[in-house]
């Protein structure tokens, strides 16, 4: 799965790209197992050509009961870039939501005990302006996603200040060091950002 490069701005990079957690496919898997059992029993009990008719009916029922959920999962994408958070849904009729990182004011996640065991949960993005509150459901590793959003947002805000960075490179480096100390940047990311700010 790739995010179309034509939809990115000149300096924008994709940091994360993923689908909803595989948990959403469990009902489709359950229906597949039930219908496979029923289809197999009918195949063994019936004579030709009705045996293949039974298999065809089982497949058609699975597509009817689960096809939409599988397609919805496949054609839903959550994208975190260096500039925004994007949610895209749909195969033919498509919908999309974009939240600029600089407008994100808070990122909350919630997990039940079962969701924690399976490593998924819900994320709520609170944003300034017209974006308001956006709920993202069935996010793999929501705590990690929260951390990545905060890190991307702080780097984005730092980049916004880099108009003054050339006049105050020491202040910019101090802010980078602060991000590293708070765990939002690894040592490698810190060095890469430092080289970029210093124009090396």
Question: What report would you give on this structure?
Answer:
The chain is of the alpha+beta class. It has a domain at 23-74. Helix content is 49%, strand content 23%. Strands 1-2-3-4 form a 4-stranded antiparallel sheet. It has a 3-stranded antiparallel sheet with strand order 5-6-7. The two termini are 33 Å apart. The mean pLDDT is 83.
Summarize the model shown.
This protein is an alpha+beta fold and 200 residues long.
Number of strands: 7
Specify the structural class.
alpha+beta
What's the overall average pLDDT, rounded? 83
**How is the biggest beta sheet arranged?**
4 strands, antiparallel
Cα-to-Cα separation, first versus last residue: 33 Å
What is the alpha-carbon Rg in Å?
Answer: 23 Å
Residue windows where pLDDT falls under 50 for at least 5 positions: none
Amount of helix? 40-55%
User: If helices are DSSP runs of H or I spanning 4 or more residues, what is the number of helices?
Assistant: 7
Global outline: elongated
Order of helices and strands: EHHEEEEHEEHHHH
Estimated share of beta-strand residues: 15-25%
Spatial order of the strands in the main sheet?
1-2-3-4
